[in-house]
Amino acid sequence: MKTQPIPALVRMHKAMGHPVRLRLLGMLRGGPLCVCQMTVVVRLAGSTVSEHLAELKRAGLVAEKKEGRWVQYRLAESDLTRRLLSSVWEELEQDPHARADAVLLRDLRRVSVEELCGAGLDINRLGSRSLIAAAKRADALRAAAQDR
Predict the structure, then answer these.
(1) Which of 137, 139, 115, 138 is nearest to 127 (CA)?
(2) Domains of the chain, with CATH numbers?
């Protein structure tokens, strides 16, 4: 097993030290996603999500792949990344925001990136009842977490 120099470990841990970046990592656990999909879930500007993803990429936690007009992000496939993130998954599964993200993503993954972007990232314009219902369930989970 190859060890990592301390600066690389520090970059990885710092990158994981932000709530949005942890949520993005949790989302990517389910497979590759486009920035626009993650933007819909975290409700931040695309440029902000891209900056968070760039930080995760610099740290070696995510990789990107261009597919046509879109860039797909996925978790990096290194042993160190797998080991670091394995300690995070169980905690994220208990986090209400990460659970809300997963609820919305289940339905959002069924929508093509082209269709989502064509609707201006507005899931209400897609006309999918199940996606709108998933968004409402996700909102309810987030609201319940804030009431605690």
Answers:
(1) 115
(2) 6-147 (1.10.10.10)
